[in-house]
Amino acid sequence: MVLQSDLPIGPGKREFQNALCESDSYMEGSEGRKQYIDLSVERLYGVFLNLHQCRSLLAGPTLDVASGWGILFPALRAYFPQLMPYSIAELTGGRLHYDGVGIDCVAFECEKDTLPFADCSFGAVIFNDCLEHLIVDPIWPMLEFNRVLRPGGSLVINTPNALGAFRFLQMFAGNSPATESHIKPAAIYQRHNREWTPGEMVRLLGACGFECEYMSTYSHRLTPPERQVLEFGKERGLLQLPFEYYGPEIFVLGKKHRHQTTEMDLPASDRWPDWLYTSHEAYRRRPMRFPIVWGEDYA
User: Fold this and answer.
1) Angle between helices 31-53 and 13-21 (to 10 degrees)
2) Closest-CA residue to 224 (of 243, 242, 251, 196)
3) Under DSSP, is residue 255 helix (H, G, I), strand (E, B) or coil?
4) Spatial separation of the C-alpha atoms in residues 47 and 252, rounded to whole Å
5) What is the pLDDT of residues 131-169, one digit of tens each?
6) Cross-strand partners of 106
């Protein structure tokens, strides 16, 4: 596996921010939505630059899953016309209108539902900032994404890096190394439940019929103290991997090379891999009832 180490090059951050903040999706959005975008511009811009780096591998139609009701849509529309037309899957459905464009939004609970689309309907699926929130069966949505992607279609995932060097500094300071450690009693799906390493992302893609085409951990964002820790480990023979594995997040693009679905009789090594699921058989199967029901008690 080769990880990208250089800062991806593309349109400037101001142009990207303007695309987001001059859109109806921002101007007419809730205050909470505006605040989230304002606080996340730097990180979202990193995702955008990696998409720009991979643009030759991308083609629509595109399904954006758990996207915050299309937060990146204005930038995707402006800079990646090859990804259009564009649809959304969220916990609640409905039709959205941004900047004169009607967007279909279907209801989809990632670990419970099947997508209401035929096999091989899309050229790209985007699944950013959600994998780390799943609590039951992350293979399930991955197989659904495979099902609705055409052969050679692209799956894009962005998620925190469980190997991030910043975690060493957190532990040295006596703090939790998790990227999110606050409990959200009323919003179980809105906190991080499992974070992933680059190697695990490759194994996840492989188990679900994808080949890894591009990966970055944003290692250009490693701070001087983080690099010092990594250098210390390297000098003493403790560091097992190149510095490129230890950036703060993971951006990965997988290409569909094998059709796999939840309906197929898959080998246990793919459907229930030992490196991901518990070895305790009583806890290994999908629940009869899921813990999340959309309603007034869920925020």
Assistant:
1) 140
2) 243
3) strand
4) 10
5) 999 999 999 999 999 999 999 999 999 999 999 999 999
6) 89
CATH class, range 13-273: alpha beta
Q: Where are the beta strands (DSSP E) in 109-179?
A: 122-128, 149-160
Distance of alpha carbon 125 from alpha carbon 244, whole angstroms: 25
CB 105 within 8 A of CB 96: yes
Cβ pair 83, 164 in contact under 8 A: no
User: Residue 127: beta bridge partners?
Assistant: 157
Q: What is the mean pLDDT of each run of 10 residues along the chain (299 residues)?
A: 77 94 92 92 95 95 94 96 96 89 93 96 97 94 98 98 97 92 79 94 98 96 97 95 96 98 95 94 86 58
What is the phi/psi pair of residue 296, to 5°? -65, -20
Q: How far apart are CA 222 and CA 224, in angstroms?
A: 7
The one-letter amino acid at 79: Y
Contact predicate 222/243, CB 8 Å: yes
For the chain, the domains span 13-273
Q: 160 near 249, Cβ under 8 Å?
A: yes
From residue 273, alpha-carbon distances to 21, 208, 270, 280 in Å are: 42, 11, 6, 13
| Residues 248/218, Cβ–Cβ less than 8 Å | yes
**Phi first, then psi: what are they for 45, rounded to 5°?**
-65, -35
Residue 150 CB partners (closer than 8 Å, separation 6+): 120, 121, 122, 123, 256
Strands 62-65 and 86-90: parallel
